Every structure is written in C-alpha cells, then in structure tokens.
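Q: Structure tokens for this one, please.
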Amino acid sequence: MKIRTRLTLIYTFFTAAILFTFAIVIYISAKENREKEFYTSLKKEAITKANLFFNAEVPTQTLQDIYRNNRKILNEVEVAIYDPNFNLLYHDAIDIDLVKETPEMIDEIYNSGEKSFYQKDWQVIGLKYDYAGKNYIITATAIDQYGYNKLESLFGTMVIVFIISILFIYAAGRYFSKRAFEPVMQMTERAMRISASNLDLRLTANGNRDELSELANTFNEMLDRLENSFDSHKRFVSNISHEIRTPLAAIITELELSLNRDRDLEEYRTALKNALNDAQKLVRLSNSLLDFAKASYDPSEIAFKEVRIDEVLLDARQQVQESNSKYKVDIYFENESKGENDIILNGNEYLLKTAFVNLMENGCKFSEEHTCRVSIAFENNKMNLRFSDEGIGISEDDLNNIFTTFYRGENKNFAEGNGIGLALTEKIIQLHQGSISVISKPSLGTTFTVQL
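A: Here is the predicted structure, written as tokens:
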C-alpha cells in the first residue's frame, strides 16, 4: 500500500472516529434531555389535574370525558389519584389503567416523595401531593411519541450526514495527499533518470524550509559526493593504468632487445638490472596503492591502540635507512614533555609509520645531502612533528597540488616517484584526526608540519 493511500485511510479513520464520537454524544444528550423534559411535563400535567380535582372540584365525569376526547387526537396524560391507604379517588380511565398501580408502588412513592420509571415505552411519574393538610399520591403516564419521532429523525439525519462526511473527508484526503506528495513523485521520477552516465542531474528543491526541501538538498549533496567519487575513481584508474604501463613497457622493451640478437654477458646483466629496477618500481607502486586503500577504509574497520610516537619514528627511520644507506634522518625533541602520556597516541602503528616513512624519504630524496631532520614539540596538549630538509624546495604552483593523488610537480626530473606518497600521508593524518601543512621555498628547503 502506498504511503498516500495509507495516510488517506488513517486520516479518514481518525476523522470518522471523532465524528462518530461527536454524534454519539449528541444523540445520548438529546435522548436524556427528551426524557427529563417529558418527566417534567408529566409532573406538571399531574399537578394540574390534581388542582382541577381538589381545588376546582371539577366533576370526575367531566375530567374523564376530556381525557377520552383528547386521547383520540393526541397522547393524553393518564392521571390517577390515591390516598395513602391505596384507595383510588380518581382515575382518567380505569378500564385502560396503563400504570397498574400496586400497594407496594404507592407506599414507595409515598415514602420517597417522587419516583419516575418506565413501563415499556411509557414514562411514569409518581409524586406526593399535599391538599388541606393531607397527603395524596398521584401517578401520571404517557408516551412521548413526538419526542421519539424527533429522536428517530435525528438518528437518521446523523447517519446520512456521517456517511456523506466520510465520503467527503476521504475525497479531500485523497486530493490533499496527492498535492502533498506531488513533489515526492516529481523527485522520484527525476531520481529514476539519474544513472552513472548522467550524475550531473539534480533534484529540484521547492525553496521552502520543509522536510521535502531538506530531503532534496540532502540527496543532491549525496549526488555531489557520488559524482566526485566517480570522477576521482576514473582519474585514479587512468593514473594507475599509466603508472603501471610505463614500467611494464620498459621491462618488455628491455627483454625484447635482449632476445633480438646474441649479446655478451655484461649486456645481459645490464638488461636484467634495468628490468629488475622497473619491477621494483611496480612493487613500490603496488605497495603504495595497498597502503592508500587501507588509509581509505572506514575508521571503524581500522584497529587503533595506544602507540608511542617516538618509537614509531625510530622504526620509520630504520626502514628508510635500510632501504637506502645514503639517507640520514635526525630525530630530536624541541622541548620536554610534561609526562609520558604526552608522547602516546591512540592510532594505527602501521599507517603512522607509513606516513612518517613517506615524509622522511621525501626529505632525503630531494636534498643533496640526503638528510631529513625530524623535531618533536609539545604544546597545548598537542604534538607537533616537523619534517625539514634543505633540498630543492617546492614552487608555489605545486604547493596547491602536492596532496593530489598521482600529481608530480617540477621536481619529477630530480627524483623518481609515483605521486601517491603525500596523498597517502594526508589521508593517514586525517584518519588520526590530525592535520598536515607545508612551508617551502625553492632552493631553500621544505618543512612538513604534522599536528596530532
């Protein structure tokens, strides 16, 4: 069942329940009011006839004739008068006698002073009447046919109005739910047209600050992220293809040249050395891509634990110097920590070491002395790590793009690389809720500052 239909039915049901409750209250109230008003009318009729009988001393036959004549055209009130000893003094029509009084009934009326009750649809009232210092009991009964007809008419009218109201409410609910969900239907139709080939399409917001406008804006923001992700993925795949194709082509060329004709041992050794060098480039590239993938994981999927940054830096220096004996990394503290906990960080040791290795190798690789200086400083519950070198530096044009994946600036002719290291480092630092910045001047050197 569609939401539009469900909301219409719920709206109709609750409105119908309210109308039904309202109608029941009105009907019960009308019924009780009719009963009270008719009992009041019976009491007045009983007292009036008692006054005619006792005070006016109208003859009994005259009163009975009036009753019988009126009874032919309207529902006349039947009145009976008794003394406390159950002696009948007057009765409008003893042959009819609708009340069928008994001594117990007369005693109960006498003791209570007044009593009202039903005999089938006939309402009966009994009351004590005082005349000349003596108490008499009067009973009066009649059927309120006019009141019953009004109640029946009211009931029929309420049923008809209720049914018409429900139909009208349902139709109104369908109409207004259609108007309310029309923007949703438009958004659905437009969303169905969005695919990988036209991610530039966006949902149209109505400009109001309502829930649908927020939904459209949220969906558009998600599409922006998806479009950027798709574009990044395309560029990433294209760059990977290019980076892998270059060393593979070099390896194939070296091997084909070696097979074209017989060569001496030294030439074969040179060809194998070049092929091995290109194969090592592929290994470094694949390792960098794997590390980049790890750094791109959901943080909840990466194991974090307490690590000492100084120990991670020492392990990173050892790895850098083992891979290239010419590289030199100096590590020192700018100030003393207030406690041992200042040097401890909740992080992933492998990823942090990868980031530090990249920064140390960059410092050594792009300086003539192949030296990188790492300083550790503590300030305001934060740790600042500075990786400095006195190398060729970075131009202003390249500074804005050095953290872009596969980007290589003017220094690509100075040393080999694949353009992944700094992008990977930035991701790792951000994954640890830190920040990285760079200051550099051409020919004077570069300083990367990592704040954790």
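A few notes: The chain has three domains: 3-150, 211-289, 296-451. The two ends are 53 Å apart (CA to CA).
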